[in-house]
Amino acid sequence: MRRYGKTTLAQSFGIDCCLVVNCDLSATEDMLRDPMLFFKNCDRPVVVFDEIHQLGDPSRVLKIAADEFPKLRVLATGSSRLATSEKFRDTLAGAAAAVVFRAGAHRRVGRVWGAPLACHC
Description:
Elements: H1 6-11, E1 18-22, H2 26-31, H3 35-40, E2 46-50, H4 58-68, E3 73-76, H5 105-113
Parallel strand pairs: 1-2, 2-3
């Protein structure tokens, strides 16, 4: 979906609690070449992958986050065709929830995570 505020939502968590990764940038692919190392070095409780569909293998990155770093909260924004993309071979069943972004989506994100949207570090 275009112009629904996904990037604004991603940035609204605050720099102290959230690492926002812009997947539109070519350097991001290099940064995520070793997802284990990336997540081990992450010093924030929330990672937001903005436009994750731009990565070569976004499914692998999300699977490693879910399997190896269960306390880490990950929000991935992207195209409305994310779920049907061949890039997402792993369903992440039980480890992920989709939020259809419409007006008021920020409240739904909080309910999915079982916490308010605002991050308090």
